[in-house]
Each structure stands twice: as C-alpha cells, then as structure tokens.
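Hey,
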Amino acid sequence: MITIIAGSNREGNLTSRIGDIYFDKLKSKYKGEVKLLNIELMPSGVLNSGMYEVTNPWIEQVKNEFIVPAEKFVFIIPEYNGTFPGALKLFIDSLSSKDADKSFFEKKAALVGLSAGKFGNWLGLEHFGVVLNYLKVNVFYQKVSISDVWSYLNVKKEYNDPKTENYIDKQINGFINF
C-alpha cells in the first residue's frame, strides 16, 4: 500500500490539490492499494503537549488505517517559513513516539515540495528527508519541487504545466519500482 500524505493543516491549501493529482496518477499506475491522508482534516487539539502520554483516537485510527499497513509514503510538503510545516513534524512525532518501528522503520518515501516562490521547497524537502532518515525511512532520490505553484494550477486547480507533469510522471514511475 502507498499512503499519500498532504502535509498542510491550513484550510483550503493547495497541498491537498497536489495530493489529489498524485492520488489519481498512482491509482492509474500502481497495482496495489493507494490511500490519501490529508492532515487538513486533523481535528483541532490533536497536537498538544499531552500527545506523547495519551494517544488520541484520531491518531490511532490514522496509524492503523494509513501508516502501519503502508509500505511506501508520498509526502506532499508545502514551504512554510523556508522549510516544512510544524504541524507535519508534530503529526510525524505523534505517530512515531510509540511504535516507530511499526509506523516507519524500513519503509520507503517519495518527497514532493511546493511553494509560491521559485525553489519549490527544496530546502524543506532536505530537512524533512533528514527526519525520515532518522526514522529509518528510505527516501527515494528523485524529488519533485513544484515552483510557483499558483501558475502550475489554473483557476479550477487543474494542472497546466507539461514540464512539471513530466517530472511528476517520472517520479511516480520510478517510485513504484523503488
């Protein structure tokens, strides 16, 4: 199973739309199960100072449905202040503070960055890759950075950039075989 994680909890974010695009593409190419987890849907109050002692029911459900059974992950990561969202880090912490071996160890991940600027969150992808390596996740070498995401998606939030589309397709094809 491949789980796609749209890593922004900001309401109405474009990360979710990129997650939808990856979901559609993977469903058409991958023979196994594909699931999409959007952390925008995370209930408020899940990430708090007590999350390391008491497991939240939503986190347990996500862990059992999306994380533990997954063999691979695709992380869609927007740029927040030059790196990745703090909510994504806390989300990963909540999943790995107990049973990190079942959640992440020796699994595989592909990284996709996006930003309104011209670098496509490449620095955030590098930072997040370090977090994943610490959790013993094997990170696929071919990362996709979607720069100027507003021009990649049209008004209807449909993609309209053949060059980026080609990068996405190459990443997906390689990641399926990774």
